[in-house]
Design goal:
By secondary structure, this protein is α+β, with helices and mostly antiparallel strands. The chain is built from three helices and three strands, in the order H-E-H-H-E-E.
């Protein structure tokens, strides 16, 4: 059964409240959905000003860049 986007966004917030920052791949595994769905929802949340997506230069294990999602502090 397909989950609604609002359910995915709620789960993203729950995970970010607990972890503060997380890679998109780990977020994908924790939510149990595909990378595209996670990215689309995170990009929408970034546009609304709730999260920040940043790119790292290198992973220490394999040398590849990856994306990190972090919760934006609200005043």
């Amino acid at each position: 059964m397909k989950r609604k986007p609002i359910e995915i966004k709620k789960r993203i917030f729950q995970i970010l409240r607990a972890e503060r920052t997380i890679s998109v791949n780990k977020l994908q595994r924790k939510i149990n959905t595909n990378y595209t769905s996670v990215m689309n929802n995170c990009e929408e949340l970034e546009y609304l000003g709730f999260v920040r997506i940043s790119k790292t230069n290198k992973d220490s294990r394999n040398g590849r860049p990856y994306l990190i999602v972090s919760l934006v502090k609200t005043p």
